[in-house]
Automatic annotation (TrEMBL):
This is Cytochrome c oxidase assembly protein. Keywords: Membrane, Mitochondrion, Transit peptide, Transmembrane, Transmembrane helix. Residues 66-86 are annotated as: Disordered. Its main location: mitochondrion. It comes from Karstenula rhodostoma CBS 690.94. GO terms for biological process: mitochondrial respiratory chain complex IV assembly. The chain crosses the membrane at residues 7-25.
Length: 86
């Protein structure tokens, strides 16, 4: 085999091996990124469920307090027309 053909064979072989290695690591990185996305989605869903549970608890407490206490709109003297200065 001539020197040029050996050099061509070595170059193409190294190029092919390099491409295979690059694709392998690229696929691994993509798989890890996708897995991280799934973990992030689970965490967002968990937070949403916690917030919804807190909201429901606050709503129940509000209803309970409204039964016990009288609640107004917060309209002070200025809103009722009695707070004008002479």
């Amino acid at each position: 085999m001539s020197r040029a053909s050996k050099l061509t064979l070595a170059t193409t072989s190294l190029g092919a091996i390099g491409i295979v290695v690059f694709v392998h690591y690229s696929q691994r990185a993509e798989k890890e990124a996708m897995h991280a996305g799934v973990i992030r989605d689970y965490e967002q869903q968990r937070l949403k469920r916690e917030r919804q549970a807190d909201f429901e608890m606050q709503r129940a407490l509000e209803e309970e307090y409204r039964k016990v206490q009288t609640v107004s709109d917060g309209g002070g003297p200025a809103q009722q027309g009695g707070g004008t200065a002479s």
